[in-house]
């Protein structure tokens, strides 16, 4: 074999070895870093979603604690205020409370009133 062919063969083998080394480096080091970064982004997004749900739950809890013990609501649930719906649960109430659905139940869980409202189309 001539020196030129041997040199070319050694060069090609070295080139393949370098390419394999670079591939291993990228697949282990860089992809692992991107994987860890992606996990951080996912954790951040999940935390934001949980915080948003907690905020909504707190807001709804405030509405419930405000309207639940209200004398007018208690009178309505006990059947003594037939005008409650007309005076309190008009569309503006849904808008003000930012709610799509209101369900009022009695002490035993029976549904006294349920109403739905589309906030987008009003």
Helix content: 55-70%
Number of helices: 4
Tell me the overall shape. rod-shaped
How far is the first residue's CA from the last residue's CA? 87 Å
Number of strands: 2
Total count of domains = 2
Please state the structural category. mainly alpha
Residue windows where pLDDT falls under 50 for at least 5 positions: none
> How much β-strand is present in the residues?
5-15%
Task: For the largest sheet, list the strands in their spatial order.
Answer: 1-2
Labels describing this entry:
122 residues; two-stranded antiparallel sheet; 9% strand; mainly alpha
Descriptive notes:
A two-stranded antiparallel ribbon has the order 1-2. The chain is rod-shaped and about 110 Å long. It has helices at about 5-65, 70-75, 85-90, 90-95; strands at about 100-105, 110-115. The model has no long low-confidence stretch (mean pLDDT about 85). It is mainly alpha-helical. The longest helix has about 60 residues, at about 5-65. It is built from four helices and two strands. A hairpin with a 5-residue loop joins strand 1 (about 100-105) and strand 2 (about 110-115). The N and C termini lie far apart (about 85 Å). It has two domains: about 1-65; about 70-120, no CATH class.
């Amino acid at each position: 074999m001539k020196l030129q062919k041997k040199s070319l063969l050694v060069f090609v083998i070295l080139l393949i070895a370098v390419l394999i080394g670079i591939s291993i480096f990228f697949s282990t080091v860089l992809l692992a870093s991107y994987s860890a970064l992606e996990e951080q982004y996912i954790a951040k997004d999940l935390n934001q979603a949980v915080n948003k749900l907690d905020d909504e739950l707190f807001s709804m809890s405030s509405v419930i604690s405000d309207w639940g013990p209200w004398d007018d609501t208690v009178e309505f649930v006990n059947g003594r205020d037939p005008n409650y719906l007309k005076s309190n649960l008009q569309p503006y109430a849904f808008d003000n409370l930012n709610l799509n659905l209101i369900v009022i139940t009695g002490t035993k869980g029976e549904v006294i009133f349920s109403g739905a409202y589309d906030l987008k189309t009003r």
